[in-house]
Amino acid sequence: MRLAIHGRGFSEEPEPYIREVLDIIRSKGSELLLSDEFVEQNRSSDIDFSAYPTFTKHGTSPDVDTFISLGGDGTLLETLLYVKERETPIMGINTGRLGFMATIAKQDIAKAFECLYHDDYQLEERVLIHLESNQSLFDGFNFALNEFAIIKKDTSSMVNVHCYINGQFLNSYWADGLMVSTPTGSTGYSLSCGGPIMFPEQENFILTPISPHNLNVRPLIVSADVNISFKIESRNRNFLISLDSRSVTVDNQVKLSLKKEKFKAKLINLADYNFPDTLRKKLNWGLDLRN
Predict the structure, then answer these.
(1) 134: exposed, middle or buried (C-beta count within 10 Å: 0-12, 13-18, 19+)?
(2) Active-site residue 23, yes or no?
């Protein structure tokens, strides 16, 4: 088996788990590649990475059987930038805190690799957002697993986002911003702004206003097969747009539209994983004396 690893800089606490991952892969005789960012951010650690070849996100996605993401959900989003359209399955090992996508706990590393080598796991396909624009944005990484957002840049003035569905006018959002979330992203930024939770295997988008000034505006669910376009007005003519955790500043001359990406993200979960159980644990549902 040929594997690749991406992760961020780690402290002393998760280091034993990183060593465990490397030891298991070595014991299985698998070929291993590491992202250049992972190696660069951990040069000061006691682990010797010099024996492993590296790859970069700006090059061709490496031809491997599985990508291993070591970190939290943010690290998994970065891992997707290395995978791109190749759709290589990603196994997210959560060495961070709250994780809805990186579902494998660090205590289950040995179990997870045993399941991986015996093909005993669930493979979930997640819909992605694709951004089209009349400007070159995000270094060509114009897709997102969680959400796309339009956000005011000035601290005092709001933006006016005119939104269209398949060319038909939907609404003008006077707000601090507007986001379009995937079902995967429904438990993230969208949730904190009052958006609904969706099961991740669904193929819909959620339009969630950010601090709207017209109070009767509510989040809206649309099919992922539609085209969503925008015209934005801003008092200072500049605003932020983001794809997951990446953001750039643009002016109101930019043209933006969204649709479903041609490829999907494929995430590996253990065979006994289920989304309702994750919701209860991560959101502390059921912590009531009556239960």
Answers:
(1) exposed
(2) no
- Structural domain boundaries, residue 83: 2-127+264-282
The one-letter code for the residue type at 241 is I
Active site residue: 73, 120, 139, 272, which one?
73
Is 159 within 8 Å of 148 (Cβ atoms)? no
CB 190 within 8 A of CB 219: yes
| Percent of the chain whose predicted confidence (pLDDT) is above 90 | 75
pLDDT tens figures, 76-135: 999 999 999 999 999 999 987 767 898 999 899 999 999 999 999 999 999 999 999 999
* pLDDT for the residue numbered 78: 95
DSSP-derived 3-state class of residue 253 = coil
291 falls within a domain? no
Per-residue buried b or exposed e for 26-57, using 16+ beta carbons within 10 Å of the residue's own CB: eeeebebbbbebbbeebeeeeeebeebeebeb
Helix (H, G, I), strand (E, B) or coil at 270: strand
* Pairing state between β 121-126 and 265-270: antiparallel
Q: Are 10 and 116 in a shared domain?
A: yes
